Amino acid sequence: MTSLLVLGGARSGKSRYAQHRSETIDGRLAYIATAEARDEEMHQRIDRHRADRGERWFTIEAPLDLPAAIAEADVKADAILVDCLTLWLSNLILADLPVPVDALERAMSECRHPIALVANEVGFGIVPHNALARRFRDEAGRLHQRIAGVVDEVVLVAAGLPLSLKA
What we know:
Layout: E1 3-8, H1 14-22, E2 29-33, H2 40-53, E3 57-61, H3 66-76, E4 79-83, H4 85-94, H5 101-110, E5 115-120, H6 131-150, E6 153-158, E7 161-166
Parallel strand pairs: 1-5, 1-6, 2-3, 2-4, 4-5
Antiparallel strand pairs: 6-7
């Protein structure tokens, strides 16, 4: 694994798949978390995910500055898992900040260690009813296309089963 984008729907198994792939790398593993615990359910979800990862993993929280977090992780880890691009995008949109895709691509190209990025594929559903949701769907689609263009491998996970889109 050099660079990998794992796409899938909610509860598709994409994070589990990306974690498993990352754990095939020897050494320390960095988990870059883009989620923010804004309620009790999210706190519990984050705690559960931390417990699932185990001792080899350390966490860097990066709700907004993902490129800097990748650079930091590259110094400290032998492999990096970003979970997830979708939450990072929604954090930026809700904070009314630009989406620094060029900086993300640069950070990925400068990364010396294997990196896996997880993202929710939201483009399979109906056209959203409101403008913010449509903007989010469109931005996510553009982000996925850009990242898929620079990674070595793209996998779509559905029902826990991986389907290779780019190898």
